[in-house]
Amino acid sequence: MMYLKGIVLVLLFLFSVELNAQVKRDLLGTNFSRKMISTVIEEKGEWQPFPGYLERDAWEALPSDLRRQAIEQGEAFLDFEWPTVKATQYLEFTRTGDRSKDAAVMSQRKKALFSLAMAELLEGKGRFIDDLINGVFALCEQTYWGSSAHFYLYGFDDNISNPTTVVPDLDDPIIDLVVGDVGADLAWIYHFFKDAFDEVSPVIAKRLKHEIYQKVLIPYYERNDFWWITGWDEGRVNNWTPWCSYNMLVTILLMEEDQQRKLDGIHKAMQSVDLFINSYPDDGACSEGPGYWSHAGGKMFDFLEVLDMYSSGEMTIYDQSIVREMGRYIYRAYISEGNYYLNFADSQLKINHNAGRIFRFGKAIEDETMQQFGAFLLAQQAHGGLIRESRIGEALLNLFYLREWEKTPANEPLIGTHYFENLEAFIAREKEGTTDGFYLAAKGGNNNEQHNHNDVGSFMLYYNGNPVFLDVGVGTYTRETFSRDRYSIWTMQSNFHNLPLVNGMGQKAGRQFEAMNTMVSKRGNTYAFETDISRAYPQEANVKKWLRTYKLKKGKGVTISDDFVLDSRDGDTSLHLMTGLECQESKPGSILIKAKDADLELNYNPKQLKFTLEPIPIDDPRLSSNHGEKIYRLAFTYLPTDLSDEIQMEIKPK
Asked: Burial, 507: exposed, middle or buried (Cβ in 10 Å; 0-12, 13-18, 19+)?
């Protein structure tokens, strides 16, 4: 099979992340030897992080509204007809590029399993046991618990969208993100309900244990060719590593009885998470975007939290600077409204994070701002009266380890300014501590970042907490999303970011297409971000210099300046701005923008620029859930024939 070689070549193209100049940290391996792990295993024995199923007083002490809601959600799946993933649904991915068909069925199965398990834990009367057994058997009889989009783990020809195996292979079990999620949920079900299942028949739990071993544990113990375990090209990894490693750790602690295999499995998972931590820059920024933080830095925390709980605090690295910075990233990237974040890379415009994770992460690193942010989100999400659909272990942590949040002040982290030096991402808020006025964010970086969009030099602008000029975000994932055809998708192209089109050309993907001489400054009441984006364009664009500068002047507005030098004029040069707001030219050189609770005006030189408003219909369900039926691109075509010039736009309240 063509495992490692092919995976290395294509994943380097897709997700390559620089191993920064810092020395490898290896925080887990350095601080916790195999001998220490072995001692912890001997001392702690079986992992019991939550009350047992029969310890009814603990479950009944949980808020009554929450228990009622969870039980009602479980009742919706009584007598549930467990849908089957058809072979042709798997084949849709390689035939048409549609990865949603098998994913939709698995989503129903996972939701039903979660809902039934939580309902039975919170009610404890046995009403949901038969349907849980049906779910267990349905999943045990399923060849593969993962996604068709990840069949490349079997091997592929030239491109990961061309896997060598197009339907699941029982004799070659692979572990992707979804396999790990399902395996961990089933391990929790085994942990809580084994005795209840045995009262019906000992075959049920025996079968479940067998399938968890065959589909998850044995492949994990025996194989190192899954790239998320050992990385590719000198240990390069992404969010898969902490996400999968967390699932492996949970499954091992709940299921594994052999002490040596438990030791080997825990140590192996720790080595992988070390690779992930090593890959991060000192500023802790998630280059995959805040939408992926929950699966990257957030999943790293989930892993560390389980180690902490299992070892009773003997195995923690929360005091390490990089861990703290990776946590703080999420509130530094927060904008407003409980769900607007700095959505560079593959992030949607609106993101709903697991508030409990943010609160617990903040508590672990002793960061009051992060704890208060978690408390703010928990209140918004009605925690105590509602269980958000999740994985079983994560939901239980939110139930049993969040008793302090109501005593914590609930505050939005409306920080005034921050610069992620390694990511080259800058934010400035007109009034710290409030959403009033403008919020500006801009980035430099390069076009080989994880989950990259060609967006070197792009920006986003908010007014009174609502988006004005935005990053459109990412649409529904397809076969093309993670292939060499990624940049055929319009949302990935610089032409649909807040960037120039130079001589008819947009930016290109690759590490060499980067910002230069990025600088941030503050003078008086003015914040400025400046970067030369000329190198982000191909040589054929004939751009020698393109210095883009953003300035936020408190009480005055925002200016965008472009100081450029071209070697020749071979095509149209224009400036693009993306918005979801209604716009109209009120007079030459002035555009009225209808913001949510205010009118803004954008002023420019009509002798330099010709304005065109371009509606863009939205037919992708993931995008339309954020933007509605259409958005707009504001195009400003450069009129003179000069090879060098300076262009300036100003945005201010009308």
From this structure: buried
Q: Could you give the CA distance from residue 610 to residue 630 in angstroms, rounded to a whole number?
A: 23
* Measured CA distances, 277 to 156, 238, 362, 486 (Å): 29, 10, 18, 27
Q: Report which residue type is found at 381.
A: Q
pLDDT reported for residue 602:
98
One DSSP character per residue, 478-531 reads -TTTTSTTGGGSGGGSGGGSSSEEBTTB----EEEEE-EEEEEEEETTEEEEEE
Predicted TM-score of the model (pTM): 0.93
pLDDT at position 166 is 96
Give the tens place of pLDDT for each residue, 385-398: 677 778 999 999 99
Phi, psi of 18 (to 5 degrees): -65, 135
Please state, as a whole number, how many other Cβ atoms lie within 10 Å of the Cβ of residue 68.
13
Closest to 411 (Cα-Cα) out of 435, 430, 437: 435
Query: What's the CA gap between 241 and 277, in Å, rounded?
Result: 10
pLDDT at 15: 43
Sheet holding 425-429, edge to edge: 417-420, 425-429, 438-443, 459-463, 466-469
Give the residue-averaged pLDDT of 583-604: 95
Residue 182 has what DSSP assignment?
H
| Percent of the chain topping pLDDT 70 | 96
CA atoms within 13 A on the CB side of 503: 20
- In contact, 399 and 405? CB cutoff 8 Å: no
Does the pLDDT at position 158 exceed 90? no
Residue 605 tokens, joined: 């030189």
For the chain, the residue count is 654
Among 421, 295, 478, CA closest to 492: 478
Count the helices and strands in the chain (H runs, E runs): 20, 21
